Amino acid sequence: MAEPQLLDDGPRKPVLSVDSVTKTFQPHGRRSKPVHALNRISMDIAPREWLGIVGESGSGKSTLARIIARLEVPTTGTVSLDGVDVTSWPGGRMAFARRVQFMYQNSLAAMNPRLTVGQIISEPMRLHRLTSSSTEQEARVVALLDDVNLKASLIAKRPRQLSGGQCQRVALARALALEPDVLLLDEPTSALDVSVQAQIIALLGDIQRDRGLTIVVISHDLALVSQTCHRVAVLHRGDLVELGETAQVIEHPEAPYTRTLLDAVPRIATLAESV
Ligand SMILES: Nc1ncnc2c1ncn2[C@@H]1O[C@H](COP(=O)(O)OP(=O)(O)OP(=O)(O)O)[C@@H](O)[C@H]1O
Ligand SMILES: [Mg+2]
Question: How many CB atoms lie within 10 A of CB 206?
Answer without folding.
Answer: 14
